[in-house]
Amino acid sequence: MQLSTDEKRAFVNALEQAKRTTHPDLVIATRHYSDIFGPDGNTVEFENITIYNYFVWSHYYSVSKTFLGAGQASFGGVDFSHEGPGFLTWHRYHLLQLEQDMQDMLLDPSFALPYWNFAIGGNTCDICTDDLMGARSSFDMNSLSPNSVFSQWRVICESVEDYDTLGTICNSTETSPIRRNPAGNVNRPMVQRLPEPQDVADCLQVNTFDTPPFYSTSSESFRNTVEGYSAPQGNYDPIVRSLHNLAHLFLNGTGGQTHLSPNDPIFVLLHTFTDAIFDEWLRRHGSDLAVYPEENAPIGHNRGYNMVPFWPPVTNAEMFVTAPENLGYSYEAEWPGTPFTMTEIITIAIVAALVTVALIFAATTCAVRARSHKMEGHQPLLGDQYQRYDDDKGQSVV
Ligand SMILES: O=C1C=c2cc(C(=O)O)[nH]c2=CC1=O
Topology with regard to the membrane (predicted)? Predict the structure, then answer.
């Protein structure tokens, strides 16, 4: 919200260019590796993809069933990027890769992704304007205004069921427009409001990075809290959706479905803010790798594991570092303060009372001293200048 008009325009244009520019280095596989040369052994089963669509595809790939090859059932229940300690490290690298690809595309190494402070409460999407991520269409509650470039974007990886049945992987084919209806989920009133500023303050107070079973059921885990499966204070509750999850679900459309969500460019800004919270937590609580689980986390989430499907390989540990010192970026963010506890209020009241008493005492002492000095100063010594009465002589002398 604090970008200038020119900065907003430059950011939106850069996203638009990334959506249209073929990735210079990467292609995507659309079949299991054993079929990568097609049925005749001569057809390549991989495709070019644009920079932004590669960003969408890699997220889809990380959450989709693991395809074991033609004639074999796919292996589900695996999520390389969510519901585990790697949630924050995976999405951090995901953003860094997009930012780097966009810097190269723009020939501008200073290009940086901004963030959206989604913890503003209420039911208004403040960045859903045509100069930013697109206003709501006046014709259809679920669509973007035709004045936004994003109304022309088409999504990829929409047909998950087809990929499963056909035994293929999502390809680069673009299909429907982005759908978004912020605060419009009438069936789930809990996701009709954005997280509150206090939720961010509370989650930053959760001391432990992650707790067994290192999953979406973890309690008193900072990672599970900021991911949004716990109440903002850290206690796991299966009904609750908070922070990152709540912001996704609030969007109510493309941005709220895990296999599709990066197709809505709000994903980028929602995740940079989540990353900013992560970095603030590392700054406050330390980034000692010992707090990141070395084992017993879901597949792909252990400390030393490579994050799927990034290339070249990069481990969770490599992203568990403070960004300004190790990764060369920082967030210009102000963090909401935490209200005082009752004990803190009582302590502050006692200290304030003692200080007041001490000040009054000191002031009174000074005043009394000053007065006595004043009196001394003006009170002439009893001496010759005072009349004395000499009773004996019956006359007065000076
Ligand atoms: O894209 C996402 C969509 C999500 C929805 C939930 C949920 O809590 O139901 N979580 C999500 C994470 C995403 O990354």
Answer: Single-pass type I membrane protein
